[in-house]
Amino acid sequence: MKTRILKASVAASTSALALVLAVGVATPALAADAPAADEAGSITVTARKRSEDILKVPVTITALTADALEKRGVTSMTTLAQSTPGININDNNSGRSDRSFQQIVLRGFTPSTTLATTTSMFIDGVAVASPSSIMSITDPKQVDIIKGPQSAYYGRNTFAGAINITTREPTGEWHGSLMGMAGTRDNYRLQAAVEGPIFGDMLTFRVTGEQFGKGGSYKNAYDGSKLGAQKSTTATALLVFKPAHNLTMKLFGLRSEDKDGAGAQSRLYAYNVTNSAGATIITNQSNCSFQGNTRGVAGQGTAVTNAYICGVTPKMANVVSSNSTANAAIKSWLASPVNRVVDPSEGVDGFGLRRISHHAHLSTDWVINEHLTATVLGGYNREVWTDLLDLDGYDSSTITSTTNPLGYWSYTYLVERKTNDWSAEARMAYKFGKVRGVVGASYLKAQAIQGGGGGLGALTSANLTVGGLSENRTTGLFFGATWDATDKLSVSVEGRYQMDTLGAYARPSGQVVPSSAYIPAATYAGGAQLAKYDYKNFTPRVILNYQFSPSTMAYVSWAKGVNPAQLNVNILSQSDSVQKAAVNAGGQLAISPEKITNYEVGVKGKLLDGKIRYAAAAYYAQWRNQINAITIVAPDSTSATGLSFINTSANSGDVDLKGAEIEASWKVNDLITLDSAAAINASKILDFKSTTISQLTGVFDFYGKEMKNTSKYSANFGVNLGGSVGDTDAHWFSRLDWNFKSGQWANESNTLRTPDRHIFNLRGGVSKGNISVEAFVTNLFNNHTYTSIADNYTIDNSLSKLTYYSAVVLGLPELRTFGIQAKVKM
């Protein structure tokens, strides 16, 4: 059976490629002056805070121009990761699969906790709050994915790398564009942009607007609605002021709103779930059992047998469903402002996600003279989101309940979060003879508060809690100097001295700390500071690069990076005896920052007079003080079980990562352009502790295991055909993309993983003058392979399967979608 499926897949892939080639061959009278494909050598990047040719900068970068983004159909973080080797998106680490928690996993650096990040995002070099903002830019100029630790220039949270999107500047002449897309599964996209002069070339503007929506790929077995429906509305505005030939000021603003329905997800269960009549409504897919441990600590606790799923994830045995219809009682609960983080006017009014993002930044570039250029940046982000979900994740309407406002048993849960941050940076780029570089200073103040709650019965404001404010202030002093020792050899020394201050504050309603185990026992007023910790780090980078010829450059680098520490504030709410027991068990209020040392070697260049352009790199990284989520089990005489379980974080891991990455493009002739990329991102756990995984599996020694939620192997291959139609000014193109990701482990015990994933996308179109029309199909062969995976629980009305992991939650892919779009430029 598997052989037949494989043969069918290969045959279908070959047929699709043949179809694209046939379209190209059958097109009559191709002109010799067909538009050239994007040339990597002409791309400029600012990975080192100054403009450099991508083939000359000794840093591993993937740059996608506006044309490349459009032809590959990249419109979101999910599609960006799909088309870029070495990147995974994990959107269900929080027990659900939607756009509320999207974690970027670059080079296998999987964030250890739900809110942690190892890759930062920027718009025009200014930090943004979340992945939703970075891909809200309508018609960007370029997206740069900078790989490896970038702490020397970009600071905190650039542990694995950074992603920067560059906005398109107005030309100073009146231009505009309109684009409309319609597709199956209720997909649509509307875009508009206009730019022009306000006062000649001195003051120009560009404004854009976009609305995107889709109906979702999966039918809800509960009520027939669609799961995974999304809607986004975005507006941006850019003012460019040039009062002098050497002075440019840019003011950019963005507002985006995501309003999604209930997410499309499913679970594989290790246990059956029955309804009130005793009928099975959820079928378990367990194929193995573990000899777990009640404490999750070696030498402690007792053995316990836990059913689970092992090997490669099977197809779903249960239908996709969710109790996602909000009645009047739930809507009334959501409309109340009591115990809320987000004001109801900005929150959801039913099941699903609502997120509102604001971003603004001001940049000033002053070319003082041929040797000095000064740049000043200032940025602001505000983001609020709420997410109402059916926590049990299936249709439980046949389980009776006399207290639930839905009229049957279901676990309704609300999660909400609000973030604000401000940033500033001033730097000076210099060039004197054989020495060039940059010096500068930066500051970031980030605040976040979250809360939520829910339950199985009546929903009131008492079900909700508001957490305390957390704050992070980061000050950095950075420098970079490149010395051209010879005409071919250059030496770069870069670094940042960074000071992080972490603060935790009491809940708005006040907070009682019953023990002095960590901080003085007292009743703290709302907003009072509970803890404050300072951290100082220096993150250097040294690069040697050698220009063998005008077309070939090689480099080697050594760099250090740091990821900010975390505070375990939730431990302060525990009783005196539990806090003292947590101290004895090694639980800390403040944990240390994560550290990385990265060694890298690479080569970039071009062949055949520039027709072939390539970049390759290999790296070895030592990740130390890895922060992981753990559970501390402490004796508690007030608990019915005699124990309390404290969810916290700790520096409980060390990992070595190594890999190789390559990109290449080949303009075969005026008709055919090929581009490809591949990555091997391997990991080896040296030390790791997780009480939750050990409780489930009984595994305590994780040495030699691989990181979760990342693909060890990934690749992309694209065939682009294009040219002129006869002797006219009309042009056509056709493109086929193959995107591959190998399977991901569910956890660090490496006992369950997803299958390998192959996605084919096909796009083609014609343009004449200012008008273009395109047709596309995504996920050409309707691949159903899961996109992400995470351990979770079987939640039933007995609540008896919550002690140990008893299910896995899965991200479901977008299924095959056909569409057509038209664009008019003015």
Terminal CA distance reads 55 Å
Major sheet characteristics:
22 strands, antiparallel, barrel
CATH architecture grouping = Beta Barrel
Shape: globular
Give the oligomeric state of the chains in this entry, treating copies of one chain as homo and distinct chains as hetero: single chain
Give the helix proportion (percent range): under 10%
Q: How many discrete structural domains?
A: 1
Total E-strand runs? 45
CATH superfamily caption: TonB-dependent receptor, beta-barrel domain
List the helices and strands and how they pair.
Blueprint: H1 2-26, E1 44-45, E2 52-53, E3 61-65, H2 66-72, H3 77-82, E4 87-90, E5 103-106, E6 119-123, E7 126-127, H4 131-134, E8 142-147, H5 151-154, E9 161-166, E10 175-183, E11 187-199, E12 203-214, E13 218-219, E14 226-227, E15 230-244, E16 247-260, E17 265-269, E18 273-274, E19 280-282, E20 288-293, E21 303-308, E22 311-312, H6 328-335, E23 352-367, E24 372-390, E25 412-432, E26 435-455, E27 464-466, E28 470-484, E29 489-505, E30 511-513, E31 522-524, E32 529-549, E33 552-563, H7 576-584, E34 594-607, E35 612-635, E36 643-667, E37 672-688, H8 691-697, E38 713-724, E39 730-741, E40 752-753, E41 757-768, E42 771-778, E43 788-792, E44 807-811, E45 817-825
